[in-house]
Amino acid sequence: MEKPPLTLVLANPRGFCAGVVRAIEIVEKALQKYGPPVYVRHEIVHNRYVVESLEAKGAVFVEHLADVPDDVPIVFSAHGVPKSVPAEARERDLFFLDATCPLVSKVHREAERHFSEGRQIILIGHAGHPEVEGTMGQLPDGAMVLIQSSEDAETVAVDTPDRLAYITQTTLSVDDTTDMISILRRRFPAIHGPKQEDICYATTNRQQAVKAIAANCDAVLVVGAPNSSNSARLVEVALKAGCAQAMLVQRGADVDWQKLQGIARLGVTAGASAPEILVEEVIEACRERFEVTIKEVTVTSEDVQFKLPRELGHAAMPA
């Protein structure tokens, strides 16, 4: 039986960003240097394929330092951690490596600067996300107030309207965040913000790439994990950009083909924590059912690289 034709429109950039590459490499190099087990607090990045691949090499993922034995290395995830976590590690004399994305660390430093200058801080982000918990945990309770929507921006109450600053989670929708910032600036004209928006280059680029393909596709598949903020935002961006349907899938086997019946053009992208091998799985799953033609749409190229921690140089782990 002849396969129906399908044009796969691949958004580019997609998949791994520099912060994710660095975080995974920190775990892999720690395993090489110190040997397994290497403990990791929280998923190093939000992708089960990545986590399970590292588990197979000897990484052990836990949610709390209390679950980490003495005398083993511990890695903090790319999302960042509250200051209480490294403090607890030092108290226990644990050897730790910080895989926090440098762009998240930049937000942490902004928060500390605003706090030291006497400003109350509005954090734009998603409650419960580990990056938000890590950012809020840089300062004492009450120093930050979290908002999640334009409605929140319209109603948020602050203690010092003339001494305010805002910062944002790095993996938000660019458009939604811009709307919230506009509301805050209207309500609080003296509010301080970052010189450049906190949303990271990779999040921005992947959203722009999805916008470039969405309106001309019958559907868009976003390869990523359900708990990946940047992947979930790509689904939202595709729908807002004019695509009739957009779905998050973890692997090729997860595609709901019933929902894709009759389509001729399928957009494919991947969140910043999803490896390209999972995109290839989706492409192969499409080839099994369709006569596939591939088209790449590139909006920009990326060449960002982040340095590894000094500890992964030649020095051995402290005894």
Please report which band the strand proportion falls in: under 5%, 5-15%, 15-25%, 25-35%, 35-45% or over 45%. Answer: 15-25%
Name the CATH superfamily classification of the largest domain: 4-hydroxy-3-methylbut-2-enyl diphosphate reductase, catalytic domain
In the sheet with the most strands, the strands line up as 10-9-11-1-12
Average of pLDDT: 95
Can you count the beta strands?
A: 12
Report the helical percentage: 25-40%
CATH topology of the largest domain: Cobalt-precorrin-4 Transmethylase, domain 1
- Please describe the biggest sheet, giving its number of strands, its sense, and whether it closes into a barrel: 5 strands, parallel
Please tell me how large the radius of gyration is: 21 Å
Structural class label:
alpha/beta
CATH 2nd-level architecture of the largest domain: 3-Layer(aba) Sandwich
How many domains make up the 3D coordinates?
3
Note the total helix count.
10
Taken in chain order, the helices and strands follow as EHEHEEHEHEHEHEHHEHEEHE
How far apart are the termini? 65 Å
Low-pLDDT residue intervals, each spanning 5 or more residues: 314-319
Shape: flat
What is the C-level CATH assignment of the largest domain? Answer: Alpha Beta
